[in-house]
Design a protein that fits this description.
- Chain B: One of its GO terms (molecular function) is translation initiation factor activity.
- Chain B: This is Translation initiation factor IF-2.
- Chain B: The chain crosses the membrane at residues 24-42, 102-120, 141-169, 189-211, 323-344.
- The complex is a heterodimer of chains A (274) and B (354).
- Chain A is mainly alpha-helical and 274 residues long.
- Chain A has helices at 2-54, 80-88, 92-124, 126-131, 137-167, 182-185, 189-210, 213-234, 243-271.
- Chain A has one domain (16-50, 92-271).
- Helices cover 76% and strands 0% of the residues of chain A.
- The two termini of chain A are 30 Å apart.
- In chain B, helix 7 packs antiparallel against helix 8.
- With 354 residues, chain B is of the alpha+beta class.
- The chains are: A mainly alpha (274), B alpha+beta (354).
- At the A-B interface, helix 3 and helix 8 of A face helix 3 and helix 8 of B.
Chain lengths: 274, 354
């Protein structure tokens, strides 16, 4: 009895070890990028928050007039409030560019991590060897997908948290920057993490269906890009409040779709003849 | 059989193999080009029809009157002419900009999905060894491998860039004057810039695939490299030609310069105030001053007069800049092709892609 348990544990460990060996380069590169970005966000946010406090506009909203006793003055009259917002505008490009870069993360994870995972196994035929081993197919699939998925979720959670933390103090302080636009919405909060999970499973499922690496990657790129565009167009823009409600709803929908895709992968792998 | 026929047959065989391997790419790419070209033509025809129907064709943002009607600074809901203006702004402007962004993805996709796997896959799977033992020289094999995708990419992007330029140039005078023509949309999405950038990114992918010898890492590296190229070109572009300096009246007023000069130029290369001797003091020199008074004191201390200046690229710089950028990209692409040919000649056949 205990023998079976030990065997199961060691098989799992073996599969995990295999997964780690396989993704070592990607995981190391991802970790390094994450650290660099964290440093950048820390630096940028410190500058932005210092400005908000020095100029006394922390908590103000761009459409609020007056705020903290300051007013927008007509045209040429001196206005500390307008000066403050003009200064703050220098922080807008780094924030938006970082947001767009973060938006690329789910797309890249789906294309470069999700799609090749199963497609490569099927294309090269290595799965046949593994399937004849003691581990069941479902466990093989779990180990194959589990390590990169965990890394992707951990990574994007950190990224999304960092970016949300940076953007939140200035969320209502940039003119014409809608909270519900693709950036920042899809780059912050649970929505960003759920998008990564979804695009990862989209890649895996397309890899399984197409069974060839390059076409699967290209298809994943096209589908996730289309998905992001569709989300940006279809998302409701409530007038007041409701931001986190929309965030969690979108995250929930994405995760449900991801779960369906995962179930599809499991079913198809189980039924596939060797 | 003479040696000559064997040689010819060998060569035809390799070319046949190369064509077969690339058929999927060719069909996909052709379908993409046809779809995008169709969309651009349809949108442009529709837009021009709209402009004509509403009497604003040939109008420009910088003119106060068009066909006797006042058009400057339209206010939403103030009349049919303003409504037509805002319709163009709300409907065609975003489509034009989004199409430009989509076209900008072409060089990246050409590098990552076509260039990087082209040789890397052969090296990774070892199939190159079979091909290299044939009678065809490695250089010829490489040339055959590169020729078809390069030709397809050049023709396809040339069609799309031409159509996009054609659409952009009808629309730019209305609602688009705030989009600097030197930024990546529209600049890199139109004219020879798009074509040459695509060729460069494609060869960058090929070269990285050859050096890295594994498909996925080569694709990832190409993605990073193409992003670097795009960024580098953006930094370089304003410096490729000397700018023209616009100078204000003694009180800082630019009113004497016609409005269309500002509206059609790529603005903001540098601006600030002039000294008595005509030297330039850019704004950044006083950017740490934290109030209007402090800024003024700062400029006075640096010896500024009230005369302001702005460095611009006038509209006439668009095509010269396009060709200069295309020249740079094509030269870099040629250098990469030469590097690939050298690298492949020196590689021993026996060594596997370890």
């Amino acid at each position: 009895m205990s023998g079976t348990v030990t065997e199961t544990t060691s098989t799992t460990r073996g599969l995990l070890w295999l997964a780690w060996r396989r993704h070592r380069a990607a995981l190391t590169a991802g970790g390094a990028l994450l650290l660099a970005l964290a440093g950048y966000v820390l630096y940028q946010r410190a500058g932005m928050v210092a400005l908000l406090h020095d100029r006394n506009i922390a908590g103000c909203r761009i459409w609020q007039n007056p705020c903290n006793g300051m007013r927008f003055a007509p045209h040429d009259a001196p206005s500390p409030l307008r000066d403050a917002y003009e200064r703050l505008d220098a922080h807008r490009p780094p924030l938006l560019v970082t947001g767009w870069l973060l938006l690329a993360v789910p797309v890249l994870i789906g294309t470069f991590v999700g799609a090749p995972l199963l497609a490569r196994e099927l294309e090269s035929g290595t799965y046949k060897m593994v399937w004849s081993q003691s581990a069941s197919r479902t466990r093989w699939l779990a180990a194959l997908l589990g390590v990169p998925l965990t890394a992707a979720v951990a990574g994007t959670t950190a990224l999304s948290a960092l970016f949300t933390w940076w953007w939140w103090p200035a969320r209502d302080q940039f003119a014409h920057l809608d909270r519900y636009a693709t950036v920042p919405f899809d780059a912050v909060g649970p929505a960003a993490v759920a998008l990564t999970v979804l695009s990862f499973f989209l890649g895996a499922a397309l890899g399984l269906l197409i069974a060839r690496t390059l076409p699967a990657m290209a298809a994943t790129l096209a589908v996730t890009a289309g998905l992001l565009t569709a989300l940006g167009a279809l998302r409701p823009h409530p007038r007041d409040g409701g931001f986190w409600w929309v965030q969690w709803t979108q995250a929930g929908l994405c995760l449900a779709l991801a779960a369906a895709l995962a179930a599809f992968c499991v079913r198809r792998i189980r039924r596939r003849p060797v | 059989m003479t040696a000559r026929t064997v040689l010819t047959e060998g060569a035809t065989g390799v070319l046949w193999l190369v064509r077969r391997q690339q058929r999927a790419f060719l069909w996909t790419f052709a379908a993409l080009v046809v779809a995008l070209a169709g969309y651009i033509v349809w949108q442009r025809v529709e837009m021009v029809g709209y402009l004509r129907d509403h009497g604003i064709d040939g109008c420009a943002d910088w003119r106060t009157y068009c066909r006797g009607k006042r058009i400057s600074d339209p206010v939403r809901g103030s009349g049919p002419l303003a409504d037509a203006y805002f319709h163009v702004y709300d409907v065609y402007r975003p489509r034009l900009l989004d199409t430009g962004r989509l076209l900008l993805a072409l060089p990246v996709v050409a590098g990552v999905f076509v260039g990087a796997p082209l040789i890397a896959r052969e090296l990774e799977s070892g199939t190159y060894r079979l091909v290299w033992t044939q009678s065809v020289s490695r250089t010829r094999w490489l040339a055959a491998r590169l020729a078809l995708p390069t030709a397809a990419l050049v023709v396809g992007t040339a069609i799309l860039a031409a159509l996009y330029t054609w659409w952009w140039r009808t629309a730019r005078a209305i609602t688009l004057t705030d989009v600097a023509w030197g930024t990546s949309v529209p600049f890199d999405a139109s004219g020879p810039a798009l074509v040459s950038l695509t060729v460069l990114c494609f060869l960058l992918g090929v070269a990285l695939g050859l050096v890295i010898r594994r498909t996925l890492p080569a694709m990832a590296a190409t993605l990073a490299a193409t992003a670097g190229v795009r960024y580098g070109l953006g930094v370089l572009r304003p410096r490729l030609m000397p700018t023209r300096t616009l100078v204000s009246a003694a009180d800082g007023d630019f009113g004497a310069i016609p409005r269309h000069v500002f509206s059609t130029s790529w603005r903001g290369m540098s601006n600030g105030y002039l000294t008595r001797s005509g030297g330039k003091i850019p704004w950044d020199r006083c950017s740490s001053a934290d109030s209007a008074d402090a800024t003024e004191r700062c400029f006075t201390r640096l010896g500024s007069t009230g005369r302001a200046y702005e460095d611009i690229h006038p509209a006439s710089h668009f095509w010269p800049l396009q060709w200069i950028e295309a020249g740079i990209c094509l030269a870099a692409a040629l250098a990469l092709a030469a590097f690939c040919a050298r690298w492949i000649r020196r590689r021993p056949t026996g060594r596997a892609a370890a």
